[in-house]
Amino acid sequence: MQKKIHYLAVTTLLLLLMAGNVFAGVHDMLVQCSAKAGKQVFLNQVIMGDTLASGKRVDPDRVYVLQRGGLYYINDVIRAYGWDVNIKAQDSSVTTKPLVYGWVAPGTTQIPGDFIDAQGNVRLKNIVLNGMADNNAAYANFTYRVPVQMVAFSANGDWTLMVDSCIFGNASQTELRVWNSIRSVHVTNCIFGESGEMFIDDVGSGRALDIRKTACDTVEMVNNTFVNGDDRVFRHIGSQGRLFYFKFEHNTIVNHGGTYGAIALGKLGKGATSSATKIGGTVSIKNNLFVDPMAFGADTNQNRQWDFRENGEPYSASITDRVNMTMIFHEKEGDSTAASTFNVAKNYIYYTPEITSTWASIKSNYGNPTLQKPTPLSRYIYSKVADSAKAFIDLSAAPGFKNVPGSMAGFATWFLSPESAGGSGGQASGGSKFVDYQRHPITYYRDTLNCSYSTSSVAYTGGTDGLPVGDLNWFPDKMKLFTGVNTSSVSAPNAFTLGQNYPNPFNPSTQITYTLKAAGMTTLKVYNVIGQEVASLVNGIETAGAHEVSFNASRLSSGVYFYTLRSGNFIETKKMMLTK
Predict the structure, then answer these.
(1) Nearest-5° Cα angle at 20, 18 to 24
(2) Closest-CA residue to 488 (of 21, 172, 3)
(3) Global pTM?
(4) Is the pLDDT of residue 12 over 50?
């Protein structure tokens, strides 16, 4: 069953993501596939060649439109330095998403390490990016490797990454990577499969989104499906900067090794570490479905301690020299006066008998007494959740997926078995008896994968919104009722807009979105009911495009507030309600 989006809801980012649709198509360039046998269209050549003799872009707002059902290739890096990358599928009655395959780089025997090296906004919609041409027998066994990452931000900037209704597969480390500070990341309605390649890297890699040693104001991951990954779905680690707002809702996670957990949040909030200047962040993890999200379990193996170290909690009261290997954790800084807010509710979790029996076998055969089912949250996060009993709910029976890859039991057995038995001994690589998980070509994820599940499962009506937990794209009739994050547009903005804050009412944090038709001096300020300025959120030169800012009102009293955007001759004010 193809994954499709049929409905647009009134949502968090409606004005942010849909800006410019009135004039959609003005900047479109249709990239046609060749009908000639063996004739390849290299997308990187088309995009990098779209320049004037001066080196400037022919159209800085260009949108590259790919034919539905088309085949495209990338054999060199798209280096987008100072301009935006906008790629989408053609609007058509044909629903098959176009495929973009990695191909050997000129003069080498390897596929490029990146597909897109970005120093500007990136917007991708309704396309398939696969690290290798697995439709070609010469490529299918990783002969020419795969990219390290598909999209990477290599410089700091006020930029946004938006990917919607895309499918990603076969990157050795991570599909999406933020090396340097950017404003926000929005991932909606996507499928991530085959994340991580033991043949090339190790099982410490294999992530969907990786924010490494840097800051990001906002990350939203909503209505996505993650299948067959070595490590975490999301990693924010080595935080020299902070993550202020993280939203992870209505996602389905199936078959992940979880070498270093499932979600690593890193440092949260804004400002310096001192309590006088730091503002706490907001984390929302709700209505997700986790099935075998950490197939490698939790234990005290020294080889796995490295990335869990930011959690900082001892494994248990009796084992204090090892870190608690929990699914979701952050780097706690001991700043109680500006503590982050954790909204965690109605996530459902299930470990298959194949995985739990694997753990029992390892414990019995190889004497690993501490191997156990991981706890979903760190003890600190559990202490901050309003209703810890409803944060994660164990399913007593399998949800009953229609069509998903087989269990990771063999993969987990290899990882957890000692080296003397041919396993890795909990190391990220090694062992003489490697057993991979069940791999599929990328077309399986486009055409066959089906993570809908039984309507008799308690998860089907288990969400905080009364909807099925997990990715709602597998339940189109329920997707109509969803009022979360909308699908995104890849068109450049053609107007100034100010969005309604979300959530509203709020406590204590909310998001405000706006778009600027042109760059210029911009202010965004918050006022109380008697006109006194209580917060200045933006005050400086802002680039044209979509923007988003978080407002934390933890120091304010309940009541009505107004926020005003000024840029050029544009002025608009909206009302919001703080309830404590």
Answers:
(1) 105
(2) 21
(3) 0.83
(4) no
